[in-house]
Write a structure and sequence with these properties.
The chain is built from four helices and eight strands, in the order βαβαββαβαβββ. By secondary structure, the protein is α+β, with helices and mostly antiparallel strands. The protein has a four-stranded antiparallel sheet with strand order 2-1-7-8. The relative contact order is 0.27.
């Protein structure tokens, strides 16, 4: 079945993955997910997301360290505030869809890199940090249940003026 996610793609991480010999499917930082069922995506929902994002500008950030939630390793963005603000904006607009189904009390922006990385692989990732990136768009993306398949349903470019 799968689910949708509102996320910021981070394609610069693809280069890191290729250099280190592992694959990430659709590297991103989640703003709100799981979100609506695929069948609930319609013009009204897309219009609402577009209106929510209209005042938001592109922003630069860096992925500066490897963190973990149990076995799950992630790259931590700096600054975190733009991601937290965007998530809070979406939560205010869609309170029926709390981040991660309400499983956590705190919003911790992160880019998941895997739950089976060895210590040498984590060290290799850390040696490549920081990674500089720019959030230029938000996507509404469908993820399969096993996260092996994704499809970008809609792209929402962030404003570039004024930055």
């Amino acid at each position: 079945m799968g689910h949708t996610v509102i996320q910021i793609p981070v394609p610069t991480v693809d280069d890191l993955c290729r250099r280190l010999g592992f694959v990430l499917i659709c590297p991103h930082i989640t703003l709100l997910g799981p979100f609506v069922d695929l069948g609930d995506v319609d013009a009204s929902l897309i219009g609402a997301v577009r209106r929510i994002l209209k005042p938001h500008k592109t922003f630069d950030f860096r992925l500066t360290s490897v963190g973990n939630f149990g076995d799950l390793k992630y790259l931590a963005p700096d600054p975190t505030e733009p991601f937290i603000q965007l998530t809070q904006t979406f939560v205010a607009a869609f309170p029926q869809w709390p981040p991660y189904e309400g499983a956590f009390n705190k919003i911790i922006p992160h880019l998941s890199i895997g739950d089976s990385l060895s210590a040498p692989e984590v060290s290799a990732v850390e040696e490549c940090l920081p990674i500089t990136a720019t959030a230029t768009e938000v996507t509404l993306t469908w993820w399969s249940d096993d996260a092996a398949e994704t499809e970008v349903i809609e792209r929402f470019p962030l404003s570039t003026y004024p930055k």
